[in-house]
Amino acid sequence: MSDNARLIEEMRWQLKQIEDRKAENQRLLAGIAGSNHTTVVSPDRSVTVLAGPGGIVSEVRLAPEALRFDAVTLSRTITAAIREAVAAGRPPVQPQPPRPVPQAQAQPRRRPVPVDDDTPYDTVFDV
Fold first, then answer.
1. How many beta carbons lie within 10 A of that of residue 26, not counting itself?
2. Which superkingdom heads the taxonomic lineage of this protein's source (predicted)?
């Protein structure tokens, strides 16, 4: 096989690999889009947030009118929509039964350490 034919064959193989990966990615995305996603739209309809199972944000969409807001207003609108979508995407929290408080175990009594009285007091602070 000539060098050109080998290169063409390798390119065909690479294109096939790319097409296979693309098909797999589309399959995965279709599964994500159709599986228990929560969609939250801001009150002014400028921000849409999709959150999947567990509250994981998968997409944030901005309507053209969202770009008319100042940065602070837009960031607050996006943040509020994300928080709502995350909260809606999480499963309800089951209350945990209270854990028993372990009782303090008695500490063994320690014997006092004997003080070294051999040093006279007047030599300790000699100047």
1. 10
2. Bacteria
| Superfamily for the 36-91 domain | Nucleoid-associated protein YbaB-like domain (3.30.1310.10)
Q: pLDDT tens digits, the chain, 127 residues: what are they?
A: 688 899 999 999 999 999 999 988 877 776 665 567 788 999 999 999 988 878 888 889 999 999 899 999 999 999 999 999 888 877 666 777 777 776 666 666 777 666 666 655 565 555 5
Q: H helices within 34-70, ranges in order?
A: none
Return the closest-CA partner of residue 51 out of 93, 77, 90: 90
Q: Collapsing DSSP states into helix, strand and coil, what is residue 41?
A: strand
Which residues is 60 bridged to in the sheet? 49
Compute the residue count for the chain. 127
Distances (CA, A) of 108 to 105, 111, 114: 9, 10, 18
